[in-house]
Amino acid sequence: MYAQIxxxxxxxxxxxxxxxxxxxxxxxxxxxxxxEILLRIGQDCRNIYFINKGCIRYYYLVxxxxxxxxxxxxxxxxxxxxxxxxxxxxxxxVDALEATELLCLERDNxxxxxRLVPKFEKFGRIMAENAYLGIRHRTxxxxxxxxxxxxxxxxxxxxxxxxxxxxxYIASYLNIRPQSLSRIRRQLSQSAKHE
Length: 195
Description:
Layout: H1 3-10, H2 17-26, E1 27-32, E2 37-39, E3 47-53, E4 55-62, E5 65-73, E6 77-78, H3 81-86, E7 93-96, E8 100-106, H4 107-116, H5 119-144, H6 147-157, H7 160-164, H8 167-173, H9 178-194
Antiparallel strand pairs: 1-8, 2-7, 3-6, 3-8, 4-5, 4-7
């Protein structure tokens, strides 16, 4: 159960066995059924999650319509960063798109972990930097690229999405209607045939 998270941590910090055991002792596990909600608007996100298995979707409700902000897969880390850091209520939902297994690190335990194993402060900094870069990349794509270019970039950068995510969620993530996604795919397919 802990092999994946150990490999993930090793990409960022070098832990000895004792340090990893301290970390492991702070973890709890959580299983979500497909479509089960992990976080709702108005809840305090008290955990950082590591996805051992499965896929989760982070989304907002805008005038009653779901707007997908992000997808997270195996070996990925997730938290509602603002809620986690400030204790404020979440302004979004998170649900499981597949049966999902999570390892959870609670906010107060993270503070203890920083004291007991200072290397985790470096890990926390790297995660914050990666979150910032991810948000900046997504914002830039949404504001500067055409729908077709956003689709092509997503295919290139994150092909796993097209293997595992329903088309209507992909359309929402790209900030287009499902019909527009179908039209883009059809046009690209026709262009490929004529080459």
